[in-house]
Amino acid sequence: MKRGLLILALGVVGAFVAYCCVYLMGTAKPRAMMQSPQPELAWLKHEFNLGDAEFKRISELHAGYLPQCMERCRHIDELNDKLSNTLASATQVTPEIEKLLNDRAQMRATCQAEMLKHFFEVSRTMPPEQGKRYLAWARDNTCLREQAMDHGADSHAATTAPAQHP
Amino acid sequence: MKTSNSNENDAPLRALLKEWKPEASLPPRFQEQVWRRIERAETAPVPSVSLATVFANWLTNLLPRPALATAYVAVLLVIGASVGWSQARQETARVTSELSSRYAQAVDPYQTTPQP
């Protein structure tokens, strides 16, 4: 009985130790990424197999891009606030409202163009094959891929003209 | 010398045994009763054994056998390692997906934060 209990316990302890070892080994990479100073850049390095020199250059590009991006966001926020205030007292589309809409659209286009420039720059820093993968990822996972237009149930009824709304 | 002497002494005993006939008779319907008892024994339900008894028996008699003990420990090791590997894969996929979203969010302010 005693020997049987010992073997039983050995099996259970062995299973637990095997679980812990395999789990810790299997999650070593993600844990290291999460503990790095910039986990999202650590992910980029891991995902696109970047060398240290490439990673350093991309980190510099990232650090240079973010402040400019935030400045553009602040500008868009200002335009949004102005537009909201103007719309609050408006009863029709005024030249001022049109100008604000145009300015905001222009700012958004600039923002997207700068983002795209950044993606190209980053992709050029990577090995060619990884650069292609990175651009494909950016195309699929950022606002460069526009959402499909949808007018809901009414769009199925209106079959005369295709929707051309932005 | 001794053997021949004992044979001489056994002769009356042998004669007496030859004369002896058992007088006891079988009880009435003895054969029928035997068959009935056999039938009863065959149709009687097997006495139930509790799970604890089976486990204790397994623990005491079967598990200590080297081959079974080795197989048992090996199977548990494989199960533990498999569960660990599966959970590690899930955790890696979760962290990778989260960091991918965080990077996208950092470079693309138009990203909508996923709702929890």
Highlighted features:
heterodimer; A: 166 residues; mainly alpha; 7 helices; 78% helix; 0% strand; B: 116 residues; 4 helices; 74% helix; rod-shaped
Helix and strand topology:
The complex is a heterodimer of chains A (166) and B (116).
Chain A: H1 2-26, H2 28-35, H3 39-47, H4 52-89, H5 95-125, H6 128-141, H7 154-157
Chain B: H1 2-19, H2 30-43, H3 51-62, H4 66-107
Give the helices and strands of chain A as they follow along the chain: HHHHHHH
Beta strands of chain A, count = 0
Tally of DSSP β-strands of chain B: 0
Question: Which radius of gyration of chain A do the C-alpha atoms yield?
Answer: 27 Å
**Mean of pLDDT of chain A:** 88
Shape of chain B: rod-shaped
Segments of chain B where pLDDT lies below 50 for 5+ residues? Answer: none
Based on secondary structure, the structural category of chain B is mainly alpha
Nearest-angstrom radius of gyration of chain B? 41 Å
N to C succession of SSEs of chain B = HHHH
Overall mean pLDDT of chain B:
84
Beta-strand share of residues of chain A: under 5%
Helix content of chain A: over 70%
Regions with little confidence, pLDDT below 50 for 5+ residues of chain A: 161-166
* Helix count from the secondary structure assignment of chain A: 7
The total of helices of chain B stands at 4
Query: Helices and strands of chain A: which structural class?
Result: mainly alpha
Short description:
Chain A is an all-alpha fold and 166 residues long. Helices cover 78% and strands 0% of the residues of chain A.
Give your account of this protein's structure.
The complex is a heterodimer of chains A (166) and B (116). Chain A has seven helices and no strands. Chain A has helices at 2-26, 28-35, 39-47, 52-89, 95-125, 128-141, 154-157. Chain B is mostly helical and 116 residues long. Chain B has helices at 2-19, 30-43, 51-62, 66-107.
